[in-house]
Every structure is written in C-alpha cells, then in structure tokens.
Design brief:
This protein is about 45% helix and about 20% strand. It is built from 6 helices and 5 strands. Strand 1, helix 1 (about 15-30) and strand 2 (about 30-35) form a beta-alpha-beta unit.
Length: about 170
C-alpha cells in the first residue's frame, strides 16, 4: 500500500503553538508529514531559513510519527509533487484565513488536481496566534510565552535583543 504523504507548508517565522497544534493533528491524518519551510516574498523574516528549519525540527522531534522538515522555494504544488504528497494540510484561524486559503486551494487545484487541500481549524485557544503578531509583540517588549514554545520564546527574545526593541 502506498503511504499517504501530506505537506504542511509555511514560513514558520517563528513557529507558534498554533503551528504545533496543526502539525500534531496533521501528522495523525497521513503516514508521513513533510513540513515545507519557505520564505514568502511578501514577508520579511526575523530568522533565516536555516534557523527556522532547525527550530521546527527541534520542536517536532517529540511528536512521533514520520515527520520531515524540508526547505522549498518553488510553487507549492510542484513541491508537493516532488514529495509524492496527495494532501496539503492548512490551518485556519478565522474567516479572513478562510478567504485567502480558499482562493489558494482553488488555484492549487487548477495547477495540480491530483493533490487535495485539507483544512484544519486551529484549537479555539490558539486561533488568534499569528507569527506576524508574535514578532510585533516581541519587538515592543511584550510577553509572547502564551503563543510559542518556551525555547522559541527564548530565540525570539534573543533576536529582538540583537536587532533592537521598538519603542525604547
């Protein structure tokens, strides 16, 4: 039997508790989950691709199952095809996410109809978390402990100290 392979793509800058929730739940739906770490040209990352991949690898190490973290810089559907994936896993937080993700899923289906997109609703307690907001809170000296794993919090705080806090 061919293993069911899924891809969970994102920038993971930084990886949040919301991402971890989707990873844990997505890993249960497939035999192998490939976490595709990319750089979105419309975002300016706080961490390099290498740093983000290392962080995601560290954070998923204790989850169990067949999870691989892979860098990609291509169309998502081409990446999914190269991985042998039949499923794209996407997390949804709110209606605004749905509109964007629905449009992307439609475009992706036009590009490669052999790959389905599966949406997972984020845990209610984690729905407001967004990497962009985590970075903004940290840059202004706010506490991000409720939004990211502890080791990620330490990395974000250290990076903010290096680049300088805003509003000081």
């Amino acid at each position: 039997m061919t293993p069911r392979i899924g891809v969970y793509p994102g920038t993971f800058d930084p990886v949040t508790l919301g991402h971890m929730d989707i990873i844990r739940r997505g890993a249960k739906l497939v035999d192998r989950l490939v976490i595709g770490v990319t750089t979105n040209p419309s975002k300016s990352p706080m961490f390099t691709i290498e740093e983000r991949m290392a962080t995601v690898r560290r954070e998923v190490a204790g989850i169990g199952g067949d999870i691989e973290v892979v860098e990609f810089d291509s169309l998502l559907m081409d990446f999914a095809e190269r991985q042998g994936a039949k499923v794209i896993v996407r997390g949804l937080r709110a209606v605004a996410d749905f509109e964007y993700e629905y449009q992307m899923a439609g475009m992706n289906q036009q590009i490669n109809p052999r790959v389905e997109t599966v949406f997972l609703m984020a845990d209610v307690a984690l729905q407001p978390i967004a990497s962009r907001l985590v970075k903004e809170i940290a840059l202004y000296g706010g506490n991000i402990a409720k939004f990211v794993p502890e080791s990620v919090r330490d990395e974000v705080v250290a990076r903010v100290e290096k680049i300088g806090r805003k509003g000081s």
